[in-house]
Design brief:
Blueprint: H1 2-27, H2 42-49, E1 57-59, H3 65-70, H4 75-82, E2 106-108, H5 116-130, E3 136-141, H6 148-159, E4 164-170, E5 173-174, E6 177-178, H7 179-182, H8 190-193, E7 199-203, H9 207-222, E8 228-233, H10 250-260, H11 262-272, H12 278-301
Parallel strand pairs: 1-2, 1-3, 3-4, 4-8, 7-8
Antiparallel strand pairs: 5-6
The structure holds thiamine diphosphate.
């Protein structure tokens, strides 16, 4: 268990340092395209993905670096992809919003809101038919929860009793629209009852709450008990995408960083309970800082795709 907790801390810490660094590098003008950062939401990806293995698949969102890292995609390959380099997980052709690594069960970050839920209905159906015990997990935001396709996928997963988990990452805003304006039901989780799907709402700053709820849901899915909707509530630490101002939410973010932060709370709890030492956590912090430095240096030094690469990776060969 100690190893597992330390690994979970490493995952969350890696995502945090990675995202803070991408924020700085983007501001320096070094990174092309659109970038949406996941900082603040780490407990969701880490708490869910720690229950997953090679049988399982996940679909991320446009805010998807953390989902990939938590599912085991090499952070250096994620960084190189964000920089658009051939050493990236999609050989530099996808960028921040299209990071995929099928060998790791990461179907991809996705620029289409609601793009992930139907994809994991497919992988969950395949797992069910093949009897692999695998589970499909789709992460989506509160905004994407209002896409018809998300509700259709939830309905399909329920009707077909698929081994699936739908993780609504409710960070309270879709771009600059508060979910209190756009979500008609009191919660996203409320909607699941109408489709015969069990649901649970958790404090997204609390890694242990996420991990417990996700563990139950994933176990039920593996045992043939069908899908679950998990609503994880928190805020994001940066603007909608890099370059946007977030004056309208600055006070909430400052409060969350100071008083609610998932990494701070994790550290306090495990040290207080004597589960991990402060020194072991500091050691992880140092290793993660070095890893992210290397990831940026290697990404910068790697080649960009050339015209000759244009026609590769376009179609899958069967
Ligand atoms: C189908 C579709 N409609 C609109 C957009 C434009 N868009 C990109 S992100 C976003 C808001 C997403 O909010 P949410 O799902 O809550 O995720 P968050 O950004 O808060 O993580 C919108 C409207 C899109 N990418 N895809």
């Amino acid at each position: 268990m100690t190893g597992t907790l330390l690994a979970a801390y490493r995952t969350m810490r890696t995502i945090r340092v990675f995202e803070e660094r991408v924020h700085a590098e983007f501001a320096a003008g070094d990174i092309p395209g659109f970038v949406h950062l996941y900082a603040g939401e780490e407990a969701s990806a880490a708490g869910v993905c720690r229950h997953l293995d090679g049988r399982d698949t996940i679909a991320g969102t446009h805010r998807g670096h953390g989902h990939g890292i938590a599912k085991g995609v090499d952070p250096k390959a994620v960084m190189a992809e964000i920089y658009g380099r051939t050493t990236g997980s999609c050989h530099g052709k996808g960028g921040s919003m299209h990071i995929a690594d099928l060998a790791k069960g990461m179907l991809g970050a996705n620029g289409v809101l609601g793009g992930g839920p139907p994809l994991i209905c497919g992988t969950a159906l395949a797992a069910k038919q093949r009897g692999t015990g695998g589970v499909g997990v789709a992460f989506f935001g509160d905004g994407a929860g209002n896409q018809g396709i998300t509700l259709e996928a939830l309905d399909l997963a329920s009707a077909w009793n698929l081994p699936a988990l739908f993780v609504a990452e409710n960070n309270a805003d879709a771009e600059a629209t508060s979910s209190t304006w756009s979500v008609a039901s009191d919660t996203i989780a409320d909607r699941a009852a109408g489709l015969g799907v069990p649901s649970v709402i958790v404090d997204g700053y609390d890694f242990f709450a996420v991990t417990e709820a996700a563990g139950e849901a994933i176990e039920r899915a593996r045992d043939g008990g069908g899908p679950t909707l998990l609503e994880v509530k928190f805020t994001r630490y940066f603007g909608h995408f890099e370059g946007t101002q977030q004056g309208y939410r600055a006070a909430d973010v400052a409060y969350a960083r100071e008083h609610l932060d998932c990494l701070k709370r994790f550290r306090e709890r495990v040290v207080e309970n004597g589960e991990l030492s402060a020194a072991s956590l500091d050691q992880v912090d140092a290793e993660v800082a070095a890893l992210v430095d290397e990831a940026v240096a290697e990404a910068r030094a790697a080649p960009k795709p050339t015209r000759a690469d244009l026609e590769t990776d376009v179609y899958v060969s069967y």
